[in-house]
Amino acid sequence: MHIAVIGTGIVGACSAAWLQRDGHQVTFIDPREAGEACSFGNAGSLSPSACLPVGMPGMWKRVPKWLLDPEGPLTIRPAHLPAVLPWLIRFLRASSREEVARIAAAMRGLLKPVFEAYEPLLQRAGATSLVRHTGCLYVYSSRGAANQWKWGMDLRRSLGVELRDIDSDELAEMEPDLKGRFRFGHYAPDNGSAADPSALVKAIYGQSLRDGATHLKQAVTDMDIAGGVVKALRLDDGSILDVDGVVIAAGAWSAGLAHRVGARVPLETQRGYHVTVASSNLQLSRTVMATEYNMMVNPMAMGLRLAGTVELAGLKAPPRYARAEALLKKGKELFPHLDTSKTSLWMGHRPCLPDSMPVIGRAPRVENAWLGFGHGHVGMCGGATTGREIANLVAGRAPEIDLSPFRPDRFS
Ligand SMILES: Cc1cc2nc3c(=O)[nH]c(=O)nc-3n(C[C@H](O)[C@H](O)[C@H](O)COP(=O)(O)OP(=O)(O)OC[C@H]3O[C@@H](n4cnc5c(N)ncnc54)[C@H](O)[C@@H]3O)c2cc1C
């Protein structure tokens, strides 16, 4: 089939690569270069352990304090509050213990095969070095402080995530730069990370081009649909592209396109920030989740990346880089000797559904449209598995994971 893949982020790139393995002809459609939107500046963590939703039981109690702190992990721009309120209500409903347990089990299914789903794509692209299997450390100021996250950590363990308790001596031995500040940790040996998330997308996408895909640098504005079948896509330069099928992988911008094929989804963007310290003089050898700081630290090819924070402000508001500067301030607190003479700041739009799960599946009312978006905080980790499952659906093969929790019609 001739399949148009809308979006050249990690989900679009991996979907295309998996579809090409079945012999389909792919046309990417995206006004941007590959890997330049949310997939550009994330923390690069590839964490099969990251199966917990963002909304956790009792979290709402901490929200007022966070909102009052301009440097806190969550901010909501007042102008966006009316628009985001219904989404927030659904988000809170999804944070009960029962819901969190259900979501975590579903997400564990999606995230566990991360490395096996990337492997064939990276092998073909000659890019295996972009993915590192170095594990991840969740670190805390004390064993007592870690208790706050015990319920979630126990839930992870019950789903098969290996998490080893690490005392302060072992922590200092594993990562000397963490010495002093952190006195307890959980080590997740099965996690890994991307050395450069954008380069990872570009490597997979570049191989797709070499395998015959083309890229139209336009935005899709509409679809011609007749008899429950997408016949063609309309692009913003006025041109029309005939297709046999379409994959909607447009990240945080997917809601309008999904609606067109019958899926009404409450997609919101949780804007996140990073600061990358180019001249990092730290010797970290793996990703570190500074849990009490809500900040992920990843030593990458281009420097040390500190990433996190959630800002609810919609797709159009300009970035507020003070949020990224706050990450740098925390970074200096954690690593007083960090050389911050050369830094870059970034904001990206995480595509988020209120239950922290993506939408993966065939469109409810159109037989040749497939949806893959809404991966929130774990799109790098879930991207390759999503691509593999979309190829399975297109081919009519049985899915290799349980896709029912990710149904596109689950919000109707
Ligand atoms: C600060 C931060 C840290 C993060 N850390 C991690 C992490 O450690 N691990 C992890 O797994 N995930 C992480 N994430 C999440 C991850 O980055 C995202 O889930 C993932 O990049 C989403 O990929 P995507 O392909 O769906 O979307 P994107 O990468 O945003 O790509 C979507 C593409 O669709 C295109 N598009 C939009 N509309 C149209 C249209 N109408 N026509 C054509 N093209 C269109 C856009 O131009 C864009 O290129 C983080 C995110 C942030 C912000």
Name of the level-1 CATH class: Alpha Beta
User: Termini distance?
Assistant: 30 Å
Count of DSSP-assigned helices:
12
Number of strands: 21
Average pLDDT: 96
Describe the largest sheet: 9 strands, mixed
User: How many whole angstroms does the radius of gyration measure?
Assistant: 21 Å
Into how many domains do the coordinates divide? 1
Provide the low-confidence segments as ranges.
none
What fraction of residues sit in β-strands? 25-35%
Which ions and ligands are bound to the chains?
flavin-adenine dinucleotide
Looking at the overall shape, the CATH architecture is: 3-Layer(bba) Sandwich
So, the CATH homologous superfamily? FAD/NAD(P)-binding domain
Overview features:
six-stranded mixed beta sheet; FAD/NAD(P)-binding domain; globular; nine-stranded mixed beta sheet; single chain; 21 strands; alpha/beta; 412 residues; binds flavin-adenine dinucleotide
Structural description of this entry:
This protein has helices spanning about 10-20, 65-70, 80-95, 95-110, 115-125, 145, 150-160, 170-175, 195-210, 255-260, 320-335, 380-395; strands at about 1-5, 25-30, 45, 75, 130, 135-140, 165, 185-190, 190-195, 215, 220-225, 230-235, 240, 245-250, 270-275, 285-290, 295-300, 305-310, 345-350, 360, 370-375. Strand 17 (about 295-300) and strand 18 (about 305-310) form a beta hairpin. The chain is about 30% helix and about 25% strand. The radius of gyration is 21 Å and the shape is globular. It is an alpha/beta fold. The chain has a single domain (about 1-405), classed as FAD/NAD(P)-binding domain (3-Layer(bba) Sandwich), CATH 3.50.50.60. The structure holds flavin-adenine dinucleotide (FAD). Flavin-adenine dinucleotide binds near residues 32, 274, 296, 376 and 377.
